[in-house]
């Protein structure tokens, strides 16, 4: 899938993911600004125009149409290989985390604090603390996959998007193996 396919997906289901829909409405971009190679028609087609014939989405989802723009003073693009590492940090973290983009681990071989296991561990904790106030009421899921699947409206919207891609002749959405989501909280600790 291309980057624009993934952003088009976020313009349908939001960029919060299925697990966060337990806690919040879909979160959509209000604007997208490109630093180079901006072409209004091409960008709007990639972001949402190719999906305008999509079936009705389940509430609270909708086809988001963010403001699109380019910058007025673009720098020349420097061709070259992208670095094979990523850096993440948020308020509350003790420091930056540098992760090898190929392995998903730090230089000591530890998985990233942003890996599925780590995020699911945090989600389970938050789910147990806020269970009475959640948008999606369900028993505590037994696995990561089960937790994601319980976000039924999110998955219905996602399937509507996948059908729209097929009907528009844009191909089938490439899916990851389901096995990589079949782990439980006990595997995380």
Can you walk me through this structure?
The longest helix is centred in the C-terminal third of the chain and has 16 residues, at 152-167. The chain has 189 residues and is α+β, with helices and mostly antiparallel strands. The protein has a two-stranded parallel ribbon. Strands 3-4 form a two-stranded antiparallel ribbon. It has helices spanning 3-13, 17-20, 40-47, 116-130, 144-149, 152-167, 185-188; strands at 31-34, 67-70, 85-88, 97-100. The chain has one domain (3-71, 112-188). One of its GO terms (molecular function) is tRNA-specific adenosine deaminase activity. One of its GO terms (cellular component) is cytoplasm. Residues 1-183 form the A to I editase domain. InterPro entries: A_deamin. This is A to I editase domain-containing protein.
What characteristics describe this protein?
A_deamin; double-stranded RNA adenosine deaminase activity; 4 strands; two-stranded antiparallel ribbon; 8% strand; double-stranded RNA binding; two-stranded parallel sheet; alpha+beta
């Amino acid at each position: 899938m291309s980057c624009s396919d993934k952003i088009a997906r976020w313009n349908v289901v939001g960029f919060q993911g299925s697990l966060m829909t337990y806690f919040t409405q879909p979160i959509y971009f209000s604007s997208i600004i490109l630093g180079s190679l901006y072409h209004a028609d091409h960008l709007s087609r990639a972001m949402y125009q190719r999906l305008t014939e999509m079936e009705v989405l389940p509430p609270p989802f909708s086809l988001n149409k963010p403001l699109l723009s380019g910058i007025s003073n673009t720098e020349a693009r420097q061709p070259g290989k992208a670095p094979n590492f990523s850096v993440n940090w948020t308020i509350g973290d003790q420091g930056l985390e540098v992760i090898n983009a190929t392995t998903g681990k730090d230089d000591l071989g530890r998985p990233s604090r942003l890996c599925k296991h780590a995020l699911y561990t945090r989600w389970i904790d938050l789910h147990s603390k806020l269970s009475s106030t959640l948008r999606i009421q369900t028993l505590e899921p037994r696995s990561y996959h089960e937790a994601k699947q319980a976000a039924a409206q999110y998955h219905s919207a996602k399937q509507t998007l996948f059908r729209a891609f097929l009907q528009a002749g844009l191909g089938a959405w490439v899916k990851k193996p389901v096995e990589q989501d079949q782990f439980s909280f006990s595997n995380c600790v």
